[in-house]
Design a protein that fits this description.
Length: 115
């Protein structure tokens, strides 16, 4: 079955950087668009970034454009989210998601931006 294992979160100061990873299994990774979402306390889950099957197309939420970068390594069935210039409002649980099983959510990884 589908498994998505997120990692790389943590506590970081404003202006800092983190790289999140998501290892996928249970489906043919290269065939599907992959996405990162986040959910802050008391808020709806929102799309952060999306990447096409071979990485040629990416889209970003306006709030992260120019600061975050999504990438993927199809050989490792892994999708990444490089996050730079982090702000307190980026604090959230971050989840990856696949078009193969859009209703499946892993445990996520907590990102806390605070001084």
């Amino acid at each position: 079955q589908v498994q998505l294992m997120e990692s790389g979160g943590g506590l970081v100061q404003p202006g800092g950087s983190l790289t999140l990873s998501c290892v996928a299994s249970g489906f043919t990774f290269i065939n599907y668009i992959m996405s990162w979402y986040r959910q802050a306390p008391g808020k709806e889950r929102e799309l952060v970034a999306r990447i096409s099957q071979f990485g040629s197309l990416t889209t970003y939420a306006d709030s992260v454009k120019g600061r975050f970068a999504i990438s993927r390594d199809n050989a490792k069935t892994t999708v990444y989210l490089q996050m730079n210039s982090l702000k307190p409002e980026d604090t959230a649980v971050y989840y990856c998601n696949t078009y193969y099983a859009p209703d499946y959510w892993g445990q996520g990884t907590q990102v806390t931006v605070s001084s």
